[in-house]
Design a protein that fits this description.
It comes from Neobacillus piezotolerans. This is S1 motif domain-containing protein. Helices cover 14% and strands 30% of the residues. The protein has helices at residues 14-24, 28-32, 34-43, and strands at residues 9-10, 47-51, 56-58, 74-77, 88-89, 112-120, 124-131, 134-141, 162-171, 176-181.
């Protein structure tokens, strides 16, 4: 069973795993029992789940009972087994927009930009601003979401949501732009 994982690039999808088993084995019964097989190797801690969109991991030893077998979730091999199983990390394609630009003069205060929500915290939202082929990190504090009291910031934002923001200033300590939501909701 471990030979099916040996040499894999992590993370990998259900389809990649299924093809790997079919190449290694002529026993179609094992392919039919793929879900059970995945649950077994999840239960013993060899693999975990990873959602690249949410940047979230799930592991049996962290009380996540069952493996998620869904297109949105990938499988990762436990880091402690990478060397033993000759597993390599999948190489990330080099792309200029993968790196943040920390130039504190690149964006101008009071300018309006389109941004995408990447993380949500109880008191702030982290967004990516793409401008002229560059990517900038910005933060919208809960007090700058709307002109009304915000009890739960999640009522206003979802990861991946497009928002319009106004640049207030650059926070050199956090290397991030301080922003104000321009899609003010006044209900």
């Amino acid at each position: 069973m471990l030979s099916w994982i040996r040499g894999f690039k992590s993370p990998f999808s259900l389809l990649e795993f299924k093809k790997r088993i079919e190449n290694f084995s002529v026993d179609n019964e094992k392919v039919k029992r793929l879900n059970t097989l995945l649950e077994d190797i999840y239960r013993v801690g060899i693999i975990g789940n990873y959602n690249p969109y949410l940047k979230s991991h799930r592991w049996q030893h962290k009380s996540d009972e069952r493996v998620i077998i869904d297109e949105g979730w990938l499988f990762v091999i436990h880091n402690g087994l990478n060397t033993a199983l000759s597993v390599t990390k999948a190489k990330k394609e080099k792309n200029q927009t993968d790196l943040y630009n920390y130039d504190s003069t690149a964006l101008k205060p009071n300018e309006i930009y389109d941004a995408v929500v990447t993380r949500i915290y109880p008191n702030r939202v982290i967004v990516d601003i793409h401008d002229n082929g560059m990517k900038y990190k910005g933060s919208i504090h809960i007090s700058k979401v709307t002109n009304r009291f915000v009890r739960d910031i999640n009522e206003y934002f979802n990861i991946g949501k497009q928002v319009t923001v106004k640049v207030l200033n650059y926070d050199s300590l956090h290397r991030s732009w301080v922003l104000e939501n321009q899609t003010l909701i006044t209900n």
